[in-house]
Amino acid sequence: MRQYVNIQLISKIAGINIESIITNNSKSIIHSRGINISGNKKIEVRNIVKIFGRSPQKALSLLEQGASKQEIFEKTKQNVGLYDVNFDVYEGETFVLMGLSGSGKSTLLRCLNRLIDPTDGHILIDGDDIASMTDKELIEARRKKMSMVFQSFALLPHRSVMDNVAFGLEIQGISKEERYEKAQEAITKVGLKGYESSRTSELSGGMQQRVGLARALATDPDILLMDEAFSALDPLIRSEMQDELIALQHKLKKTIVFVSHDLDEALKLGDRIAIMKDGFISQVGTAEEILMNPADDYVSEFVAGVDRTKILTAENVMKRPEPVVSINSGLTVAMQLMKKHGISSIFVVDPEKKLQGILLIDDVVKAANEKKFLKDIMITDVPTVSPDTPIRDSIPMIAESNFPLAVINENQKLMGVIVRGSILGSLIMKEDEHNGNT
Ligand SMILES: Nc1ncnc2c1ncn2[C@@H]1O[C@H](COP(=O)(O)OP(=O)(O)O)[C@@H](O)[C@H]1O
Ligand SMILES: [Mg+2]
Question: At residue 203, what are phi and psi to the nearest 5 degrees?
Answer without folding.
Answer: -95, 155
